[in-house]
Amino acid sequence: MAISPQLLYLQDPLKFEFEASVVEKIALPGGRQGVILDRTYFYPSGGGQEHDTGQIESAAVLDVYKSQDNSRVIHVLDRDLPVGSVRARIDSDRRIRHMQHHTAQHLLSQCFLRQLHASTVSANINGCSPSTLDLESPAISKIDLETVENLANEVIFQNLQVKSYFVSGAESASLPVRKPDAVHAEIRIVEIDSFDYSACSGTHCTRTGSIGILKITKTERQNEKMRVHFFAGMQALEYFRASFDTLIRLSAAFSVHPRDLESSVLQQSQELGSVNKQLESTRHELLKLETLRLLQESETIQQRLCVLEAYEARPAQELRLLASECCQHPCTVALFSSLSSGKISLVVGCSPGSGVKADEMLQVLLQPLGGRGGGDSAFSQGGFPGSSEQQADLMQNAVRLLKTLPPPENVDG
């Protein structure tokens, strides 16, 4: 079968520099420039694989894609180029990464099919971040993943030939193609030496050994499919290198051999958890003591014990705990604010019999300031962007509001 004279990457994916002619210029949206060459080795986005980048003369190639009728390859440039002869150079690192990942995806899909009878329904190839494939499969165990990964790397180490060729639709029916192509009269087959046959128009390694190594990093449920993330080739090396560097730094920090790092981290995690529980218990005791002090120093307004305090950068959780402790005391209103990073948090607590509803008081105080919050009659919380001056005004407004409220009913004395 004949190969289009324009799509030379199908014939030689390792050709990174070539000469061609700009035969047409296209004005693209956003003021961008597109050109069509009489022949090209640039890969256009498609089939789950991203486009090539590189240079055409002094212009950077930003994107490459096929026209809607698939008849032309459009090269998107960062500047204008004249019609005529040009020299072009493909970013070889990006191309090789895509080749490694795309061939690895074919290999991995076949391994999942052979080992787990799991078919690949889609894939995304990216040589600069994990590539993915989506499987028609339920949850996959760690042991099954390792079995698939081991088989894939065995085939890589065998350095099998990867070849591509065109066949007719009828001829493809006689091949064990993983996913048949029923659309095109001519079908390009990428074959991993009798191990896998795939209908594909992407760029691939010429031998499995060029993939280097393949590592599955994780799986996750995605739209009722099982998504598998994996690294291959140079990206896998970078992943292993970063992981190893992290392992060495952590081992040094814990003063243990790398093989003992996991047990050391787990032990310290358990010890830290125990310490945190003790600290939490101590913090609660200190808050109770602080509550006693606040109750003793608080003012009685309209026969209610009113506990009001303004803080700086105090966590909202502590404000809530203080309000809860204070409201264990009968006929009490607790109001605490905290200013942190230009935001004022407000907590209001009202004990039974106080005759005050926390949610109503919160709204009265916050509404003039554009604040928002919510809760119920016993406890409410909100906030708004503000300054120290606004916090001071808020506390004064709270005192004024409490003085206008009628005394609670059924209060002795």
Question: CATH superfamily of the largest domain, called what?
Answer: Threonyl-trna Synthetase, Chain A, domain 2
Highest-level CATH class of the largest domain: Alpha Beta
* Low-pLDDT regions: none
Mean pLDDT: 92
Biggest sheet statistics: 6 strands, antiparallel, barrel
User: Share of helix among residues?
Assistant: 25-40%
The assigned CATH architecture of the largest domain is 2-Layer Sandwich
Please count the helical segments: 8
Question: For the largest beta sheet, what order do the strands appear in spatially?
Answer: 1-2-5-4-3-6
Identify the overall geometry: elongated
Would you tell me which CATH topology of the largest domain applies?
A: Threonyl-tRNA Synthetase, Chain A, domain 2
Element string (H = helix, E = strand) = EEEEEEHEEHEHEEEEHHEEHEEHEEH
Strand content: 25-35%
What's the end-to-end separation, in Å?
Answer: 104 Å
